[in-house]
């Protein structure tokens, strides 16, 4: 895994899908508005922040541009907080080694696509 991509994908999961410990409707802008009944102070979230545009770009890349096996591994690893590791591997139809090899490939592809979008 690429540590920088891992951090970005963790932030993406938190930003776009609520992540672990987000509570309520998640931490997307719409979820925050619902939780705060329309009274949202931008920048009120704690912890490190990623620009929403990067989150949106990652969302599009994972949902539209990654090959299915890679997108499935990304979703399982970053969005499925209910399952044990073995269950995640089984859901993706692979073992531990192949799961992490796919995750590394997904990191490389996402990083490449983000660089293309930035250029």
Explain this structure.
Helix content is 66%, strand content 0%. The chain has helices spanning 3-17, 29-35, 52-65, 68-79, 85-91, 96-118. It is globular, with a radius of gyration of 15 Å. It has 6 helices and no strands. Residues 21-26 and 43-47 have low confidence and may be disordered. The chain has one domain. By secondary structure, it is mainly α.
Quote the distance from N terminus to C terminus: 24 Å
Number of helices: 6
C-alpha-based Rg, rounded: 15 Å
Q: What is the overall silhouette?
A: globular
SSE arrangement, N to C: HHHHHH
Overall pLDDT: 81
The portion of residues assigned to helices is 55-70%
- The stretches of 5 or more residues where confidence is low (pLDDT under 50) are 21-26, 43-47
- Return the structural class: mainly alpha
Strand count, sense and barrel status of the largest sheet are:
none
Return the domain count. 1
Strand content: under 5%
Query: Would you report the number of β strands?
Result: 0
Features:
globular; 119 residues; mainly alpha
Summarize the structure.
Helices cover 66% and strands 0% of the residues.
Q: What is the secondary structure topology, with strand pairs?
A:
Blueprint: H1 3-17, H2 29-35, H3 52-65, H4 68-79, H5 85-91, H6 96-118
Helix pairs in contact: 1-3, 3-6, 4-6
